[in-house]
Amino acid sequence: MSTRTLAVVSAGLGVPSSTRLLADRLTTATVDALRERGVTATVEVVELRQHARDLADNLLTGFPDQALRGAVDTVVGADGLIAVTPIFSASYSGLFKTFFDVLDKDALTGKPVLLGATAGTARHSLALEHAMRPLFAYLRATAAPTAVFAASEDWAGGDAGSPALDARVRRAAGELADLVAGRPPTAPADPFADPTTSFEDLLRGNGG
Q1: What pLDDT is attached to residue 189?
Q2: Can you give the residue range of the structural domain that contains 167?
Q3: Contacts of residue 73, Cβ cutoff 8 Å, sequence gap at least 6
Q4: What is the pLDDT of residue 147?
Q5: Strands 112-119 and 91-92, how do they pair?
Q6: Which residue range or ranges hold the NADPH-dependent FMN reductase-like domain (predicted)?
Q7: DSSP code of 140?
Q8: Which pick of 33, 125, 201, 204 has the fewest CB atoms within 10 Å?
């Protein structure tokens, strides 16, 4: 079996959070779908609430600290991405948007992405199409056709979710698995590629 890496970005604010719960459901279903396609998946989760201060500092300085750099590298280096946000005022959260603002504009080009969102009412479900999908289209990622929205009523029966939600999760996971399995593994980033300071300047002690 071949191996692929999935990065999971959850922008939930609470502990526990319905956003993380949906992210976990999507992840489990995608791992299962990849296994059916002969692919073993490793999963790395990025909880954005843990990087809120790091993101604010990055906006002010233009440079990520070590913790945020690790989160960025996880997402950029993954073969596929599951991105889930709570919906506030009919759009993705500010924390979610700030993280993707930090990425290089070409970092997600061609990367398979499964979009998910949560909110208290199904009235917010269109945010997936009028807000999240355009964001990832701008980043030139390859979004799975099915995006998954979960409102409070979808969890009324417990963490297992409603049958309708389960069907959406399985369909979206299968689509992401097809996209991920159909691409060659992402090559590890070369830390010495395209250095901002030449090696000659580094040797002279002019590293900026």
Answers
A1: 55
A2: 2-203
A3: 189
A4: 97
A5: unpaired
A6: 6-155
A7: T
A8: 204
Instruction: Specify the pLDDT at position 21.
Output: 94
**Is residue 173 situated within a structural domain?**
yes
Q: What is the three-class DSSP state of 200?
A: helix
- Cβ atoms 76, 189 nearer than 8 A: yes
CA proximity to 143, closest of 104, 102, 100: 100
State the pLDDT at residue 188.
Answer: 60
What is the C-alpha to C-alpha distance for residues 50 and 187, in angstroms, rounded to an integer?
A: 27
Block means of pLDDT (10 residues each) for the chain, length 208 residues? 94 90 97 96 96 94 91 96 94 95 94 95 87 96 97 74 88 97 72 47 50
What is the pLDDT at residue 33?
97
- In a domain, residue 57? The reply is yes
Q: What's the confidence (pLDDT) of residue 25?
A: 96
Contact 76, 106 (CB under 8 A): no
Q: If we measure between CA atoms, which residue out of 53, 45, 56 comes closest to residue 22?
A: 45
> Which residues have C-beta within 8 Å of that of residue 12, sequence separation ≥ 6?
18, 19, 20, 23, 47, 49, 84, 86, 118
User: How many domains are contained in the chain?
Assistant: 1
**Single-letter amino acid, residue 113:** V
- Position 202 scores a pLDDT of 44
Find the helix packing angle between 94-102 and 52-61, rounded to 10°: 50
CATH of the domain at 148: 3.40.50.360
In a domain, 208, yes or no: no
Q: What is the pLDDT of residue 195?
A: 45
